[in-house]
């Protein structure tokens, strides 16, 4: 159930106190763990505006976000102080959402590195002591596995460093990996044999093949040897020849349209140039008839003496 920013009298009085800099400074000096407090320059404490909080979280966000700099002056720390009068089994995850939202807003403001965000919970409920863990990893069914995942680098599939021979063994995902690894090459002819082998295995369904061929057309349809690449693949994989040759036809049609369009554009440019040339000649002849020095006329109009003489004849 969502709660408004001041849904209870508890929230209202808490905000009134913790939004005051001196009060917040005392709170942090008393309650922040020592290992974190010694990193904080309390003289730089500044209340973050409501706009700093993402809109989709504001309905849940009842309390206060402060920013300050580190004592070394080389980074930022945010402290989110959440007030709670009723225990919430998912409070730790909620605080993590606040923390990541603050990190994102920090990046959006133009900073290059993530800030340290310290979530703190102030609790004064009827049930004592607070009954739930404030480590969000404890909310998982397997906290140990969650710690293993979220405390280390995430899995990376960098296909740019995987050898092609290894990719060929990747069954149904091999075709996508091979094409996307090499999609930025100017010439795809080196992929003909491998792509043909993968097509013959039949590991991709019709919608996947259609998407792949369209992808190749969009990325490489304008390159000189792409038509040859498609024809060579089609020759090796007869069952896909019709679909592949359709791509070749589309390339040819695109080329015809492009040639026609370029021809029209060239004609327009020639017309403009011819019109400018005729106007320059008209001005030149008028200037000469008025007795203006010939060299001066040539310099002003940019015409040559031969061009002016040829027009008169």
Low-confidence stretches: 1-6
Computed structural class: alpha+beta
Largest sheet: 4 strands, mixed
Fraction of residues in H or I helices: 40-55%
The backbone outline, from C-alpha atoms, is: flat
| Mean pLDDT, all residues | 83
- Following the backbone from N to C, one meets helices and strands in this order, namely HHHEHEEHEHHHHHHHHH
Strand content: 5-15%
Q: How many separate helices? A: 14
* Rg calc: 35 Å
State the strand order across the main sheet: 1-2-3-4
Count of individual beta strands: 4
End-to-end gap: 92 Å
List strands and helices in order, with pairings.
Layout: H1 9-18, H2 21-31, H3 34-37, E1 40-47, H4 55-58, E2 64-70, E3 76-84, H5 91-108, E4 116-123, H6 143-150, H7 164-167, H8 174-182, H9 192-201, H10 206-220, H11 226-236, H12 241-289, H13 294-301, H14 305-312
Parallel strand pairs: 3-4
Antiparallel strand pairs: 1-2, 2-3
Domain Transposase (putative) YhgA-like: 8-209
GO biological process, one term: DNA recombination
Protein name: Rpn family recombination-promoting nuclease/putative transposase
Care to describe what's here?
One of its GO terms (molecular function) is double-stranded DNA endonuclease activity. With 313 residues, this protein is of the alpha+beta class. It is 54% helix and 10% strand. It contains 14 helices and four strands. It has helices at 9-18, 21-31, 34-37, 55-58, 91-108, 143-150, 164-167, 174-182, 192-201, 206-220, 226-236, 241-289, 294-301, 305-312, and strands at 40-47, 64-70, 76-84, 116-123. A four-stranded mixed β-sheet has the order 1-2-3-4, sandwiched between helices. Strand 3 (76-84), helix 5 (91-108) and strand 4 form a beta-alpha-beta unit. The chain is flat and about 100 Å long.
């Amino acid at each position: 159930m969502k709660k408004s920013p001041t849904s209870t009298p508890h929230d209202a009085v808490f905000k009134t106190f913790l939004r005051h800099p001196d009060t917040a400074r005392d709170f942090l000096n008393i309650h922040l763990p020592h290992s974190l407090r010694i990193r904080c320059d309390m003289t730089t404490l500044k209340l973050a505006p409501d706009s700093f909080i993402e809109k989709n979280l504001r309905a849940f966000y009842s309390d206060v976000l402060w920013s300050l700099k580190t004592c070394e002056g080389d980074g930022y720390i945010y402290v989110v102080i959440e007030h709670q009068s009723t225990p919430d089994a998912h409070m730790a995850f909620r605080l993590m959402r606040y923390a990541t939202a603050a990190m994102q807003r920090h990046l959006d403001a133009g900073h290059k590195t993530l800030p340290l965000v310290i979530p703190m919970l102030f609790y004064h409920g009827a049930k004592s002591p607070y009954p739930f863990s404030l480590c969000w990893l404890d909310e998982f069914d397997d906290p140990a596995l969650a710690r293993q995942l979220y405390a280390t680098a995430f899995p990376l599939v960098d296909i740019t460093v995987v050898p092609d021979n290894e990719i060929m063994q990747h069954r149904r995902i091999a075709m996508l990996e091979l094409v996307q690894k090499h999609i930025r090459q100017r010439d795809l002819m080196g992929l003909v044999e491998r792509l043909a082998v993968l097509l013959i295995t039949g590991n991709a369904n019709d919608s996947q093949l259609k998407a792949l061929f369209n992808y190749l057309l969009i990325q490489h349809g304008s390159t000189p040897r792409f038509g040859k690449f498609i024809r060579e693949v089609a020759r090796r994989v007869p069952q896909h020849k019709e679909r592949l040759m359709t791509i070749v036809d589309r390339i040819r049609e695109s080329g015809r349209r492009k040639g026609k369009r370029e021809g029209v554009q060239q004609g327009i440019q020639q017309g403009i140039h011819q019109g400018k040339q005729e106007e320059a000649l008209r001005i030149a002849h008028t200037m000469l008839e008025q007795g203006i020095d010939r060299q001066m006329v040539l310099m002003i109009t940019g015409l040559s003496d031969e061009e002016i003489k040829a027009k008169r004849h």
